[in-house]
Design brief:
The protein is mostly helical. The chain is about 65% helix and about 0% strand. The chain has 2 domains: about 55 residues, Arc Repressor Mutant, subunit A; about 160 residues, Orthogonal Bundle (Tetracycline Repressor, domain 2).
Length: about 240
């Protein structure tokens, strides 16, 4: 291996060690208490050495946020691929279930990206793509149904409330200006994470007895909202379409 290759490998390993230590600090003190100096002390490194990898706390936070979003997005994409033969509704449930399971397995990383904002931190543009991965998977399967003619185009003009270009970015731009399919898809996407957040942050404690079933039933109602066929090739007809 060349000297440059060795340096790159060492840098990658130290970067991994720093981010792993930072994740442990998230679990004990939360994102607001994250400190490069504390991470350096845990690793037995000089603070100046850590600053060579992450010039500021915000840079380290951004790296952790991007990693969390990418890990969640990868879980959703893998679930969608594994459910390719299960029809649109099967894919929908697989992706929703994967998001919940990832959140329950990684509560501190989930709280970092979907919990309270970190005081003084503003997420840069580099977080937008990773943050959109799960939503893009969910919208893509709706777009697949629209292209195949198994998902109806609901009327109501809801897409007009979206920011310009959003519907196109998620692949749900429709020729019919009265469509509400993109807006419904984004509503469903945010509702999925609303259910996950309420469960993970304890808002449904002593309210919901069986969170797994509650989530599954909720995801199914959202699939109805989108008109996802209950069986491959058979569209669902619901109120408002």
């Amino acid at each position: 291996m060349t000297a440059s290759g060795t340096r790159a490998r060492v840098r990658a390993e130290l970067t991994r060690e720093i981010t792993e230590a930072a994740r442990r600090h998230l679990a004990t003190g939360g994102a607001g208490a994250l400190s490069l100096r504390a991470v350096a002390r845990e690793l037995g490194m000089a603070s100046s050495a850590v600053y060579r990898y992450f010039p500021s706390r915000d840079d380290l936070l951004t790296a952790l946020i991007v990693e969390a979003y990418d890990a969640l997005g990868a879980a959703a994409e893998q679930a969608d691929a594994a459910a390719a033969d299960s029809g649109l509704r099967g894919r929908w449930h697989a992706v929703c279930r994967s998001a919940r399971e990832w959140a329950l397995a990684h509560p501190h990383e989930y709280a970092l990206v979907y919990g309270s904002p970190v005081p003084g931190y503003a997420a840069p543009q580099t977080t937008i793509g990773p943050a959109s991965r799960v939503g893009e998977v969910l919208c893509r399967l709706v777009a697949d149904g629209l292209a195949a003619g198994t998902v109806p185009v609901p009327q109501g003009g809801g897409d007009a409330v979206l920011a310009p270009g959003v519907a196109e970015r998620v692949g749900l731009s429709a020729d019919d200006p009265g469509s509400s399919l993109a807006a419904r898809s984004i509503l469903a996407w945010t509702s999925v994470f609303g259910m996950i957040s309420f469960e993970l942050f304890g808002h449904t404690h002593n309210v919901v007895a069986d969170h797994e079933r509650f989530f599954r039933d909720g995801a199914d109602h959202l699939a109805d909202l989108l008109g996802l066929p209950a069986h491959p090739g058979h569209p669902v007809h619901h109120a408002g379409t």
